[in-house]
Amino acid sequence: MYKKLLKLSIASGFLLATPWAHAQVAPDPVQYVITPDVPGPNQQVTIEAQGLGTFLGNATIIWKKDGQVVQSGAGLRTYSFITGAVGSITKVRVDIQSPTEGTYGKDFVFRPSLVNLVWEADTWAPPLYRGKPLYSAGSPLKVAAFPMVIINNAQVAASSLSYQWTRNDEPLPAQSGLGRNTLSFDGDQLQAQETIAVDVYFGTSLVGRGGVVIPVSQPQVVLYERDSLRGVLYDLALPSSLSLSTKEITIAAQPYNFSRVSVIGGAVQYEWTLSGEGIAGPDSSHGILTLRQTGTGTGSAALEVSLQNNNQNQLVQAAQTVLGILFGQPGSATASFFGI
Predict the structure, then answer these.
(1) Is residue 119 in a domain?
(2) Which of the listed residues 90, 112, 134 is the one where a domain comes to its end?
(3) Is residue 227 a part of any domain in this protein?
(4) CA end-to-end span of the chain, whole Å?
């Protein structure tokens, strides 16, 4: 399974293998396992020769890298090496000399490539937000593949490659094909993450592989003060509690990481309570509430706002927060708040 944080890339490459047998008519009894099967640049690769019976254990096995003998001896069935940079060529040859079964050989050519996957969630964030909106369960997602495949000293255009996508280990043939290096879908609200993988082909040859795990992030609601002249003061969120020195304050509740389409379409509902009692104002359904102190004296109140996405495919998207407010001047404790 592929692993990441907000962005993950997997390097991958491809190889060509040419079998060779001397004085043999029957099929080659030796099989080779390459790990990883699609290696990338500067990555360790292990080749293991496997066969039935004991002849490999008694055979002399010679491994060559780029024409130079790097390993030779009886029963040396595995060889490991490090690939080069993107587009570089590493040639590996193995010769197996058995006193009872004859001589076998095979050539491998490795050309590492790179496939970067970048994902984007269509979720809500405030204007001028500098961070990356995170994925919340059920929200739309888009994944783009950026391959770097070099053949004959030239990079192959992304449009000339074929992409075979899988999502959570399920193939997506309808969204795969030549030049289809982007994948768009709505996430599953019951999954803790989305695992996306792509195999990249040049013609019929597998030349690259990439994968990314997109974790589910919980939506949030953050409170800001709204100024009558400057608007919402997004540069500084309100703390968990504050001491109010004025008679009135307007608070804006801003959703983060909810589905953007649901926020715009009004599927995300706001609910306000003040010290446990429901409260509303003209703009409270849009996340704006003004609180005004009545009477004199000091007091405190707990303002809570809850957000719920009522889209049937995104019901798990919910968030709430509480703001503690101390207000009034020393004197009789008869002050109270109401919303407008």
Answers:
(1) yes
(2) 112
(3) yes
(4) 52
Residue 14 has pLDDT above 80, yes or no: no
Q: Which residues contact 186 (CB under 8 A, 6 or more apart)?
A: 138, 139, 140, 141, 313
What are the tens digits of pLDDT across the range 52-92?
A: 777 888 899 999 999 999 999 999 999 999 999 999 999 99
Q: Which domain holds residue 230?
A: 220-339
The pTM of this model reads: 0.81
The pLDDT mean for the chain works out to: 88
The DSSP secondary-structure symbol of 123 reads B
Are 174 and 278 contained in the same domain? no
| 266 to 170, 285, 308: CA distances (angstroms) | 33, 9, 11
Task: Tell me which residue has tokens 């704006």.
Answer: 288
Bridge partners for 300 per DSSP:
326
Q: What angle do CA 217, 222, 224 make, to 5 degrees?
A: 155
**Residue 161 and residue 59 in one domain:** no
CATH of the domain at 171: 2.60.40.10
- CA distance to 34, 47, 273, per residue, from 31 (Å): 10, 10, 69
Q: Phi-psi category of 137—alpha, beta or left, where left has phi over 0 and alpha has psi -120 to 50?
A: beta
Question: Same domain for 20 and 72?
Answer: yes
H or E stretch covering 164: strand 162-167
> Are 270 and 180 found together in one domain?
no
Q: Which range has highest mean pLDDT (13-22, 51-60, 313-322)?
A: 313-322
Number of domains in the chain: 3
